[in-house]
Batch of 3 targets.
Target 1
Amino acid sequence: MTRSVVTVMLALAAMLVVAPAAYAQEGQIAGTVRDASGGVMPGVTVEATSPALIEKIRVAVTGSDGQYRLTTLPVGTYTVVFKLAGFTSQQYDNIVLSSGFTAPVNATMTVGQLAEIRARAETAVCSNEGLWSEAEAQKTMRPLMPLVDVVIANEEDLQSVLGVHVAGADVASGALDAAGYRAAAERVTREFGPGIVAVTLRESLSASDNGWSAVLWDRDSGTMLQSQRYAVRLVDRIGGGDSFSAGLIYAMLAGRPLDAALRFAVAASALKQTIPGDFNRVSVAEVDALAGGDASGRVRR
């Protein structure tokens, strides 16, 4: 055997010995996050900190199955914290990660204190009030409207951002007048160009109970659609408008007729307001069931 061949074989042998040894200096942390009822929780932020980390913190987010995995972690002692808006953070200390080991760290999230949720909501409102004036908003947004196909708003948005007043609407009391919404929606399509205007309707019965529905004006057919109405016992109303928008966009892109898309969006956003946090943790099938009239609240096993 020549010297060059021996050298290559020795080099390969060294790689086979050294590579596993180097790899063995790392481990993983993985697990599943559930709520108090045992359901999996997507969208939970998982933070791992350790002196062994050069960057000091490693972050992951749980997937649709509630699972997460932090890989290529240097061996050492870790602290893992689970966070989600509306829920009490969960912290696990002194997790010793050895070489080649996957440490199982699961968590159960519980709803946070009402004071914590309320403080977050009040902060958001205070921040929005000082963002810009109505005049500044209208100066920026009105020229953009010819580029818009679908407008999604509430009566306050129409007034503040477009300068379109909804006659008979009282934001403070939640008083609604369907004729006033139709006139406002027609004006938006006539003066600014979008073909569809969807407006959410919130009846503020109390701090804990709201009526929830929506209307949709379709310029091409000259039709004003009005959705079903839900009496919602609020858990966290933050994200209700976002989930309505997401539901309407999803249903329209899926090719559903406008009346069905409106029903889907209202059902999705009504469900969201009974769930803590900003993430609407419901399935399409669950939304379709509610939109189809199944509001019995019976436990499904």
Target 2
Amino acid sequence: MGRAVPWVQPLSTIGVVKGRLEPSGTSPLMGVTLFVRPSLGKHIGLVIIAPAPSVQHVHLSMPVSETTFSRQAVAERILKGENLIVYRDQLLKIPTTWLEKHPGGSLALLHFVGRNATDEIDAFHSEETTALINKYAIGVVKNWEPLLPPVESGWVYQNNTWSSESVQYRPERTEILLVEKHPKYTSEPAPTMSSITPAPTTLSFEVQAKHSEAYMRLQQRITQAGLYQCRYLTGYGPEVVRYLLLGALSYFFYQRSWFMTSALFLGLMWHQLMFFVHDLGHRGVTHDWTIDRLIAILVADFIGGLSVGWWVDVSPSSAS
């Protein structure tokens, strides 16, 4: 169903295309990388990064569904229990299974149902992650006017039914809905169009767009300045010295039977180490989930006596 793009020389860009790329024939698609850049929106750039002489053609399959959804259509689907989020004019349908697995927790997604989450998704996710978002797209929206997420008025869709509650949601994960029950909603068996329609505001969409643009420019400047990259020597070097000093002082006073003083410095060392574990839980040290988690297990589990796996599980919104 797609058109063929002739093979070009390695290490060159052959343009910007829509849709997915599939290899032609039996030759493996070696040396081809797909990536999404914020500046390109939903388009996909194709870059040849290594020689692949066995590949003769690359076929462009049909793009992600271009079905345009109206605000009314989106609202009706949300009222049926679907979790729909807008990202770069794409309408994403978030499956229930992903709500359970999302590192940031279920509520981080539920609070953006019916809303444009572009700024938040780009700010808190890597390019590798945002490149996978297309698989959740079911269509597009134009000039999106946000709806009010059902969860904000206490509505939760579980086991194919709506329930209105201001108590714990998934209590085993300590996710809590702090929503005061309002008489407007308690008499209804499910959320209605009026309950997911935001109140009028004097903040125009033009002003919101300017705020969003300014935010993205700031985000780009921070990224280009390398402020998200961990400086191991100048950043964590002094921290490690502090940990070792507190541990040494605890041992020093313990050897002299000054047990209360030793316990004080030991407690201070554990206290400071937990800040380090907190950063590891955010993948804020090496930015590699496996490496950060292994270091966190060593520090938290074996030195501090705290299961970092348990902590991340019960506080997903703060440890993604």
Target 3
Amino acid sequence: MSINLRKSRVKDTVAWIKYPEIDGFEVKIKYLSKKDLLALGKRCTVKQMDVQNPGQTKEDIDQDQYRKLVAKEVLLDWKGLTIAGAKVLISLGEDFDDAEEVEATEDNKKLLLEESINFDSWFQNVMSSLTHFRAKKTEEELDNLN
């Protein structure tokens, strides 16, 4: 029997994944295949004059646009991020209640991607690695057995 992998591919794989550095903080992430990742990057490509080669243009990724799209389309939601947890990721003032939950707004998601090296590195790794999504599915299947 011949299996057509293209027809069998699941288009939208989404999972809640635990962020390892903060207890209780889980992030809802949409998996991006290589093709999806390249398409996202292409949507953020800008042409600029190449200062090293006058008269020629070069293409670069608009990092701000990239983070904006990722925050909207890939980093879908989160739960369990408190001010205390956010202080582990970015520099915040002391005028907040550490137990207060931080809402997953577009601006807050984009800020974490911009300002937190640890969060951004972890997120970039997770969003394009099926291993994390498969592991999550296996955990859910085991939970359903109990």
